[in-house]
Structure formats: structure tokens, C-alpha cells
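Hi support team,

I submitted a single chain yesterday and got back a structure, but I'm not sure I'm reading the C-alpha cell output correctly. Could someone confirm the output below corresponds to the sequence I sent? I've pasted both exactly as they appear in my results page.

Thanks,
R.
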Amino acid sequence: MRRFRFESVACDEGHNEFPHLLARAHRGKIRPLCLCRDPGVPMYIADIGDQLLIKRMPLSGGGHDPACPSYDPPYELSGLGPLMGSAIKLDPSSGVACLKLDFSLSKRAATNQVGSGGEGNDSVKVESKKLSLRALLHFLWHESGLTEWTSHWTGKRHWWQVYHHLLEAAGNMAVRGTPLSDRLLLPEPFRAHDKTAIGQRRAHKLARLFLTSAGPKQLMVLVGEIKEFAEARGGRQVVIKHMPGFRLYLEEIAWTSVQRRFEPELALWHSSEASHLMMIATIGGDPAGIIAVNEIALMAVTEQWLPIEDAYEQRLVERLARLKSKYVKGLRFNLRRDHPLANATLSDVKPQPLALYIVPPSADEAFEACLREMIEARPDLSAWIWRVADGEMPPLPI
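Hi R., thanks for writing in. Yes, this is the structure output for that exact sequence:
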């Protein structure tokens, strides 16, 4: 059971006085200290759907004890490492993560861009020190705690929880001094009895897309679950779950690029009725009132909303989902697909956390050399490796 300090009072989260201390700290904007380490790790209190929860500060997971639920694996095991201190900077005084984006939130000309994965087809590209569109989605997922899972949560994660945790995470991020939540549209969980009010709130937020003023037009970031890409004249209508009646247009040439660039994500989505396909897109409006996609990236997630990038990760995640131990799914951010990462990390394994690596059949010697360097650089972690070309997934050492 976790233990926290509220100013001068220390208390277990199961103590009778804990709810009172939590509510008082929330009203007084007091940061609790997680006592998994001495002298304590600062946390913050979030109001998630009228429920007060203690959450770790942005980018603070590495400061917790590996046995603590707030622990996060070392950032260099994923694509987050190269972005720290450049694309992502933490303001210690406010606890806000300041982001640098490699895509624009305004539009000067009628140009369409599709995808933003940090991958080149016929050239070698230095990894961007700014967040691509896909990397922003990964960062939102990471900071929302949606990369974490234990079998105790089976059947307890739905869009309602995903929505509130994403919204809370976005409130702790800023782009050029402006809260990301001001420019982020998330589909509010749909309730038939509240349909009109939900539509009005959405229309109010989207109104900025149709402001008539000199200079570039403003864009917004939309994160939502794809229901279908319906046929439309000259393109596709992107249908988003929990947004009935909302029209989002994607040009045909862009749809062709989406099918090519995100073929793995679309294949994973089509392979299982239980999976979800997440979209992040910059969207803009035109004088006719049409809202269209400017730039888009896709991410496949499992029934538990855990991101996966291929069938090998899907098999690993399905096996891990049955464990009582908590694990954290690794994300690629801007990393190329031919670069290794810890696909998952089991944090509460004894005697030390366990990093799990998948070596795809296409891996070359450069991939293997980079993987060896990653493992050797972290002697505080055990390593489990599945070389897919060698056969079936090896047993997990737990």
C-alpha cells in the first residue's frame, strides 16, 4: 500500500483519514509526496470524473522506486529518451511539460501533409528533436498512464477513462506557452440524453477554426477512435466514435497515402474486432464550414487500449495482459522501425525490473549491435529477448 506525505502528515492510502487529507490538499493546491523514496517524490492531485487521484508529475516516473506503481522505466529504453531536454522540457516550478512540435498549428496555404513518423524511404534522416504528430500521440498516451497494465484492470478501461486521463495529461503540457488542452479536441463520451449539450460544447471549441482574420488560419489537434473511413465525393469521410453527426473530410490523395504509410496499423485494426484504431490529426475549417484533415497519423491499440505496432507486439501484449504484475508498454515516438526499443518493461519483477525486447525477422547486424549497447548500458535491468526468426516466443521468466 502506498504512503504519502501531506505537508507534515504522513498517511497510507488505506487509512480512514486519507480521503479527508486528499480533499484538503486538493483544495489547498498542495503537492503530496510519494514516500517510496526518501525524502519523497512530488506528486499532484487530479480530479478525474469527480474522483480525486494522486498522479505522478510529468516525466517524474524514473524518480520512483521500481516497486512503486508510479515508477516508469528509463526513457532511453524507448523513443522518449532522444526527445528529453530538447523537444520536451519540464518546467519545475509549474510541473508543465513544454513541447516543441515539428508540425504546425496554423496553415498558410492549401497544402496537405499525411503522416509524421520520423521515417524516410530512400534517405537517412537524423532523428528530429521536435515531436512529430505520432510522437505527440505517444507522449499523450505515456503521460496518461495508458501504457501501463495489470490483469487487475481487466474490464475496467473504457473510453470514459481514456478520455479523462488524456484530458488531464494534456492540461500539463504546453506549446509556445499555451496549454495543449486549449488546442486539443477529444470526443466527449457520448450520452444520448446529453447529445445537444455535447454538440454545443464541441461547436464552441471548433469555432476558432472559422475565425476570419488576417494571417494564417488556426488548426486544432483531434485525437479520437476511428469508426470507419466512409466513401465521400473526392475522398473519405472520417467517422469518429462518440462524435455522431461530425463530418471530417480527408482528400483522396491523402487517403491513398494513409493506406500506404499506415498499412501495418490498418492491418492490425482489421485483424481483430476487439482492437481500436486511434487517430491524431491537425484539422482546419474553410469558409463553407467544412472541417478537413491537414495532417494525420494512426496508432493501433488492443482491447485494453495498449499501443501495438505489429503482430509480434500484439502476441507479447496479449500474454502480458494476463499477468498480475504491472508492465509498461514501450513506445517508439520518433524512432524508426529499424531501431530497437524495450517493447515492454515489467517493473515489479525481483531482483530487478525486466526489459522485454523483440527482434523482428528483418533485423540486421546494426539492429543487433544497437540492442547490445542498450542492454549493456542498463545493468540495473534484466533482459528478455524474443528473436522472431528463431521460432516461438520464449517463456517469460516470472
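A quick pointer for reading it: The CA atoms of residues 314 and 327 lie 14 Å apart. Let us know if anything else looks off.

Best,
Support desk
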